[in-house]
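Input/output pair, single chain:
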Amino acid sequence: MQSIHKFNIITTLVFIIVFSSCQKVITLNLNSTMSRYVITGNITNQAAPYTVSITKTVDVNQDNIFPGVTGAKVVITDATAGIVDTLKDMGAGVYQTNLINGVSGHTYQLYINAASNIFVASSTMPDAVTLDSLYTQMSPFGRSLQVVPVYTDPTKKGNYYHFTEYVNGVAGSDLNARSDQLINGQKMTSPIRTSKIESGDNVLVSMECIDSFVYNYYFTLSQTENQNSATPANPVSNISNGALGYFSAHTVSTKDVIVP
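Output:
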């Protein structure tokens, strides 16, 4: 996601998706001069290893470069399988798993000790939902092209989704989170928020099945982007002790299409 800088007190965090070399960008409210930890971690149903990123914020009048936090103790526990994995410090604030594999239905617990600052989080990987197909269409006003992911929501209630789109390999909008509150059990053909696309572009969409806590993060992140306040609130994090960011165990399904 490349977020639009609406306010001069908003800065961005770039982190690497574990299954892709493309980048996401989180927009955060950093109106405080106090440095804060920013943590992002993903466990997926794709092949390991997985990574956790730890950085620290800087003052708004400094360059938007988030220093990586090294030397932290980072542990992910598969509470369902009883596997404890101490991550390897790869440098620049990136920590990599050694033992953990992502499995639907399993609960994963994150523990971080960074200079005696303790952070914990938990996420349960939902059952996988397949992204069946992808197509483009003209918007109702005929001014732009839209991307439409097609999938069927399970009849069991309580499913949450997050979509990221990539245009010619470049990450675009990341503010696409949905719940099945109003569409439970239905076939979905609703367009997602995307970057500008043109004929000949290759568009790839990644659909993640996420838990409710991570959905709340993305939902509040999108609300933050839409606020007209000069000091928008930070998105709700599922990580303790005032950390920014999120920890997510989710499934991944992708499709791509060449725009006609």
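The chain has one helix and 18 strands. Confidence is low (pLDDT under 50) at residues 1-25.
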